[in-house]
Input
Amino acid sequence: MAKTFDVVVIGGGPGGYVAAIRAGQLGLSVACAESEPYADPKGEPRLGGTCLNVGCIPSKALLQSSENYHLLHDGFAQHGISVTDAKIDIATMLGRKNKIVGQFTSGIKGLFKKYKVTFLPGHGRFVAAGGAGWQLDVGGEAVEAKHVIVATGSRARTLPGLPVDNDVISDNVGALDFASVPKRLGIIGSGVIGLELGSVWKRLGAEVVILEALPTFLGACDEAVAKEAWRVFTKKQGLDIRLGCKIGTVLRSAAGVTVAYEQDGKAETLEVERLIVSVGRVPNTDGLGAEAVGLKVDARGFIEVDAHCRTTLPDVYAVGDVVRGPMLAHKAMEEGVMVAEIIAGQAGHVNLDTVPWVIYTSPEIAWVGKTEQQLKAEGVSYRTGQIPFLANGRAMGLGDTTGFVKMLADAATDRILGVHIIAAHASELISEAVVAMEFSASSEDLARIVHAHPTLSEVMHEAALAVDKRSLHF
Ligand code: FAD
Ligand code: NAI
Output
């Protein structure tokens, strides 16, 4: 007889495992299917999805290790600290990263036990409507569910004629595991992964060349931030970013890879030891049995959902990277919580307009809400406050005064419409702006809040004051 649950979640990434935990907390009988290919020491699939295994967590571990190494070489001298003969041991760095991944992924199995979530190792797919509601197959076993949450996530997009072996030509998976620092590293795509992983290997000594198809850099960011990022990454840090590139043939050679490309109508070639392909991600809907039950999937492979992540089928929901909206772990997790609460009869809510973005380069880039170019295109009247970290006491003490906070507020109502930061610790600073926007605060509200001194957050305060042209320290 088929095992039956109130809720079966397909996919154990941030969207899926969080949905399962919340459903368990709410007293629902819940199971989570996961077919992750990277088995843990017990031979079971690991939980945590892209984020914990080959995304957010390992990349941030490497970003920190490489930043520490870089500071030892180039950042600490201004503090009077010098080290001769500083070395990096790549195996130790990768071992630390793998240990962090192992701790987090096994920690989720512990949380599943705590919240009575049944773990179903194996590939999950729809078979038919009926039984308790939906009949599924997980790794060859029949399972029935009253409600299904699809959280199958995404995988790296590939380019035709460019097979990824995760050795010489890598997507995010191989790029987190290079056993040595390549002398010359090529990257296709100057998006979030290209910049983060490019920074890791550049700081460790690789010469990094990034080939980007678009003629503009970081088009999703506010233009002022993109311009400052371009200056810092190319002029100060030496990342060689080439825009407007059309990739041609890619050939393997004894030395690595040769990429033929065209830039400004001119044929060029790039020879590198290793190549990372980071040209976006595609949703995982293959093999899900969507067609067997009539689950609607759009032309790009995303499952169609409404604002509450309801699919076109009754009692079937989809969350995270497999649906519209930003492909971010925190967005996936909040959608997971929302859906579990809706299934339990509560009101669920996720505001996609206040989902923050962070790029963990140095300086970090973080933003929430609209960019100035979006407001212009929408014909919204706005006021701007922009304050650099140059005059901030804490930034001076840290020895890093790069960047600024830019705040955009509605000209008529003063409601904050967007906040854009490029600076050290921008990832932490953005939370204040998210809270402010979630509660429809005005720049005047933020200007009247006491900010501790000396902190980086004082620049947010000054930017709010600057919207009204009354900044005090700049
Ligand atoms: P996933 O994490 O992709 O999880 C889906 C899971 O479902 C996978 O484990 C998969 O094996 C499983 N699965 C798929 N199909 C089936 C099936 N049929 N049956 C059973 N299991 C199945 N986001 C951030 O917010 N911050 C960051 O710093 C960040 N850094 C990143 C760095 C990199 C290098 C990458 C690649 C991504 C990063 N992301 C980051 C994005 C983040 O990882 C994703 O947005 C997030 O993991 C999406 O969660 P998800 O649960 O929707 O999907
Ligand atoms: P991306 O969408 O951020 O960037 C892809 C880049 O590749 C774009 O600039 C695009 O113009 C370029 N490109 C596309 N086709 C190309 C081609 N044929 N030749 C050259 N350039 C080409 O995608 P990326 O970097 O792969 O990351 C995927 C997603 O993962 C991100 O969008 C984000 O959702 C998530 N992510 C989030 C992180 C974070 O939150 N810090 C970190 C890493 C990934």
Notes: The first strand starts at residue 3 and ends at 10.
